[in-house]
Fold these 2 entries.
Entry 1:
Amino acid sequence: MSESELYSCQSFLVCNRDGLHPDCRIQVKQFSHWFAIPGERETEGSPQKLSSTPFPDASAQCDSWDGSNERLKVTMLSSDWDSPEGGPSTIIREIAILLANNAEVKVTLLVPQSSFSEEDKTEATSRNITILEAEKLTGYDPHDWLISPPTNHLIDVIVGHGRKLGKQAQLIRKSHKCKWLQVVHTAPEEHSKYKAYSEAISKQREIEIDLCKLANLVMAVGPRLAKIYSSYLRSCEKDFLQLTPGVFSELTVVKQCSEEGGRFQVLIVGRGDPEDFSLKGYDIAAEAIAELKDQSYNLVVGTPRGKEEEMEQQLLQCGISKNQLSFRPFVQSKNKLKELLCEVDLAIMPSRTEDFGLAALEALSAGLPILVSGNSGFGEALRVIPFGDLFVVDSEADCKEWAKAIKKIRKRNRALRLEEIWRIRDYYEDTYSWQKQGEDLIDKMLNLVHDKTNIKNEQNVAE
């Protein structure tokens, strides 16, 4: 390779020249300096003295180098691989898979000891993801075990998530001299409008914002959170990125039956927690079914075991008939989820506010017709794609508007409904490509780690 080709390379190298000059170790920032005589380098043809820079660990780094050091080393904080509760767990897994698909990125999940099953570890490994278990710290919450990765674990970017899996990153950045990407999954202030414990939520909001201010780069999940946090962070001019979850490929294999069933089964997506009854719009769903005044409609509700009776009592107070209610145990596996999404005719998400709405996206991915609240990240994302707004119900809509929207969906025969939603799924997948967003994220990380602006400035000075 010619010297001019070497000079054009943007990589950083640490050069240990102990073998030739025991008293001199230098950091080489441009390949054109590789062959410079120790203590000198040539700039525009004239020799210029260059002071030696000590690098205590340079020898060890060079001795152990095997080519993998060229890869971008990303460590993500996590606590599980495939939580049935979804949410942040699903996003963490999908981002890890997304990054690991790039051969130039080495992805590690830092997890509490014994939090991953052998099956989880095997699946992660098959995806080119390394699982690193943090040792137990007696007296500490398992999430706090993550504050001290092994000192010999190399990190370019540490990725934190929200409060529970983000606060540790501020310590890891200091101990491992890396950059910090903070991912935000929720806007507590929005939830406080429909929760009884608003004071605690206010504190959560402060922590979320403070962590974002400390991080080098912030990424919001979906357009709704992107707008909220970009407003929160205006004063600090934080580098910002948006990731809108794409179609879940493992659910696109679901084969929906094109034949009509008996009753029209309407699934309300969510965990079915009575605590979130108002926030998630369970009352809106029950009142909408009651408003239709047609016993052929049936509302299907997923609930945690032991919560069925409490949820049923709350729903019955909304005017829905008991024989129009069906309960399913909260889904614990992807196979059970696929079965449920084949059983029903329509999935609705009438949340009064929703950070994004991954459960509704899962329904779309499986080719199931959907109706979602406009006051959600997923609803905002749908409005951008062709005909997507047909499946979004206005955020201020009452039960009567939801009843009309449900009835309108049912009027089309099932085969037509499925054909329409498959087309919407294709539009969505094209607009919010996992691969394209992954490439953008990697570019951001590389710019962050290599600080290319400074490199360019150094080149200009050298020239």
Note: The two ends are 21 Å apart (CA to CA).
Entry 2:
Amino acid sequence: MESNKMKMNSLIGIRMGNIDIPQIDQDKLDGVITEVSQYVDLLDDTIYNNVKVGNPHASKEDIILAADQAQVLDFAWELPGGMHTRIGKGGHTLSDGKKLCIRIARALLSHAPIVLFDEVTNNLNVEDACYTRQAIQALVKLKTVLVIAQMKPVTSLWDE
């Protein structure tokens, strides 16, 4: 996971109310912003437990709802163990788009009202980008989303 200092540096120039985000106490910021980054490793665990990382105290129903909203259930139920399928270190058994859906499910499950997407879709192919579009659309309906992206096609995932 990116260091907190790197996360703060990526938010320079962004204000929350009248306060520059990098000036907010880190402990308070962690409760307000959750990050979806291409560098976040998935656990060598089940899909269910990887989604649960977004909120370790979430109920089973909330975990399944977040997975459904993020399109995780669409692929999980096709796997032999469903949500209890182990995905290997870093999610190496999944495509980049499926990994992104799990990261989005984590963000949906978290209590943080702001989600920072940091160059997260750079490695997606066309099929994965189309696959994750619905997950991203579910997220922007429920959270404030900040997108750091250098490529215009990436930002078009949020356009409607």
Note: The domain at 4-158 is CATH 3.40.50.300 (Rossmann fold).
